[in-house]
Design a protein that fits this description.
about 110 residues, Nucleotidyltransferase, domain 5, single chain, 4 helices, alpha/beta
Length: about 110
């Protein structure tokens, strides 16, 4: 299971998803984080540069390129949650604290319908 989540430089879950400056892509296998890669995405600066549709498309491209199965975040807007659901991704809201632990929790959550 590949999980993407917004992160701070000190390894915590960043409270923002759509305006994240940095995200991590974690591969979770057999209940452990098998790989962890962080990316400076700059979605915070890009969020208002174009319309909502273009912003959602930017995030969707990133998630598809990295073969993400689930997104963990503290919160996100309903349109973003809807888009991720339509992509068939698991969405785990309420994530906070240690980012690696949040990735593990998201990977073990229920599968989307």
């Amino acid at each position: 299971m590949v999980v993407c989540l917004p992160v701070t430089v000190d390894g915590a879950v960043d409270p923002s998803w759509g305006r994240a400056q940095r995200v991590a892509v974690a591969e979770v296998t057999d209940g452990v984080v098998a790989s962890w890669k962080e990316f400076d995405v700059g979605w915070d600066a890009l969020h208002d540069a174009e319309g909502e549709g273009a912003h959602h498309a930017r995030l969707a491209r990133f998630l598809l390129e990295h073969r993400v199965d689930a997104v963990a975040a503290g919160h996100m807007g309903a349109p973003m949650e809807h888009m991720l659901g339509r992509m068939g991704l698991r969405v785990a809201l309420g994530a906070s604290g240690d980012a690696r632990q949040a990735a593990l929790a998201a990977a073990s959550g229920p599968t989307p319908e």
